[in-house]
Amino acid sequence: MTPSAEDVLQNTANIAVLGVGAVGQLICHQLTAKAAKVLLLTRDVSGPQTLTCQPLMDASATSCVPDSVTHQYPSLITTNLTAEHLAHIRLLIVTTKAYQVVALLTPLLAKLRADCHILLLHNGMGPHLALSVLLAQHPAMGLSLGTTSQGAMRLSQWQIKHTGTGLTQLGHGFGAVINDNYRALLLDAIPDSHWQDDIITSLWQKLAINCAINPLTAIHQCQNGALAAPQHQDTISQLLLELIPVAKAQGVKLELDNLLEKVNQVIHLTAQNYSSMYQDITHHRPTEIAQINGYVSQCAQEYGLKTPLHHAILASIKSLEAQD
Ligand SMILES: NC(=O)C1=CN([C@@H]2O[C@H](COP(=O)(O)OP(=O)(O)OC[C@H]3O[C@@H](n4cnc5c(N)ncnc54)[C@H](OP(=O)(O)O)[C@@H]3O)[C@@H](O)[C@H]2O)C=CC1
Ligand SMILES: CC(C)(CO)C(=O)C(=O)O
After folding, report:
1. Is 195 helix (H, G, I), strand (E, B) or coil?
2. Cβ of 214 less than 6 Å from ligand 2
3. Which residues of the chain form beta strands (DSSP E)?
4. What is the whole-number distance in angstroms between the Cα of residue 91 and the centre of ligand 1?
5. Pocket of ligand 1 contains residue 122 by CB under 6 Å
6. Which ligand is located closest to the Cα atom of residue 154?
7. N or C: fewer beta carbons within 10 Å in the chain?
8. Domain 201-322 CATH assignment equals 1.10.1040.10
9. Ligand 2 centroid, distance to 150 Cα (angstroms)
10. Atom of ligand 2 nearest to the CA of 266
């Protein structure tokens, strides 16, 4: 049965977020601000009572910190989810790290409603390919894909700070298309969000940005803005030059000048940020390198293309990850 706009906005939580970290919590706040009810799927056995978000500082209000916003949320623990628990979820938004997506969704697919729609919102690429194979067994399900350049940081387990505005691009992946009311709700709730008919091209463009900025900031231990220095520009160009033929082999047309402009724009706009990979390395956490430069290297191998710099960078980050 197709949910009505009223169901989507008013009913008991039929939207769930899996991966209630920085981005997951931000999306929860943004949906809740539009009166949607959101269920949290968390591995924290005590579950949160409330989530709190410190909003973005208005550029004109430099002297005061904006008030935090707190909302209450029902939650379920991911380790013991039953089909009965999951029966109400019609839209599952997955905001885990890329390397957690497939392992978390694989056991869940058989328990979700037959017509549940899944939206992936992570950096890097690859999980959608594994999921396309798994979803072949669930013909009424559908997958949407997305990427966001909003910034969010965890202040504590259930408290985040909204650290940056940025474009969010969403689009159809495969299987059943997302219900129009959910699509409208997402686009209304997430600032600067857009539906892309060709989401795979958008994901490759974001992948190119992450391939350049994330590992270089982790290797050089610097903020994103430091990559504007002339000594990094050749490396960035070389990474993009290696990536373009790989994207082309997948039917995605990218151009060097356009990508360079996008990368340098993000370097400029997020100059004060420490990239997620820099932070993962600094805090001795696994990185998403396998789904970023690793994805490019792996696809290149499949097409008989050479990407020596991506390969070398993959090795450097793996060796940084191994240092404890
Ligand atoms: N933060 C940012 O500003 C941006 C992030 N991104 C991308 O968004 C994605 C998410 O990033 P971010 O929110 O920062 O990452 P976080 O690590 O903050 O969030 C990931 C969440 O997944 C949860 N999780 C992991 N395993 C399980 C499990 N078995 N059961 C339930 N929950 C689980 C983690 O739980 P736990 O809390 O218990 O660890 C955590 O809350 C990444 O791909 C990132 O690159 C993109 C743009 C900006
Ligand atoms: C866009 C960028 C590089 C912002 O820091 C990012 O996505 C990340 O850090 O993972």
Report:
1. strand
2. yes
3. 15-18, 38-42, 50-54, 69-72, 75-77, 91-94, 117-121, 142-148, 151-156, 159-164, 168-175, 193-195
4. 18
5. yes
6. 1
7. C
8. yes
9. 9
10. 1
Catalytic residue, chosen from 34, 97, 161, 206, is: 206
Q: Environment class of residue 240 by beta-carbon count within 10 Å: exposed (0-12), middle (13-18) or buried (19+)?
A: buried
Quick check: ipTM above 0.90?
Answer: yes
Residues 13-47: pLDDT tens digits? 899 999 999 999 999 999 999 999 999 999 988 86
CATH, domain range 5-197:
3.40.50.720
Ligand 1 contact via 276 beta carbon (within 6 Å): yes
Q: Which atom of ligand 2 is nearest to the CA of 224?
A: 5
Backbone φ and ψ of 194, nearest 5°: -140, 145
Q: Establish whether 161 is a catalytic residue.
A: no
Q: Please give the average per-residue pLDDT across 250-269, as a whole number.
A: 96
The owner of tokens 């991966």 is 19
Close Cβ partners of 86 (under 8 Å, ≥ 6 residues apart): 16, 108, 111, 112, 113, 116
For residue 14 and ligand 1, the question of a CB distance below 6 A is answered with no
How many angstroms is it from 148 CA to the middle of ligand 2? 9
Domains of the chain, by residue range, sit at 5-197, 201-322
Secondary structure of residue 112 in the 3-state scheme: coil
CA distance to 8, 122, 193, 272, per residue, from 224 (Å): 39, 19, 23, 7
Report whether 194 contacts 167 (CB < 8 A): yes
Query: Does the beta carbon of 123 sit less than 6 angstroms from any atom of ligand 1?
Result: yes
124-182 pLDDT, tens digit per residue, is 999 999 999 999 999 999 999 999 988 899 999 999 999 888 899 999 999 999 999 99
Task: Name residue 161's amino acid.
Answer: K
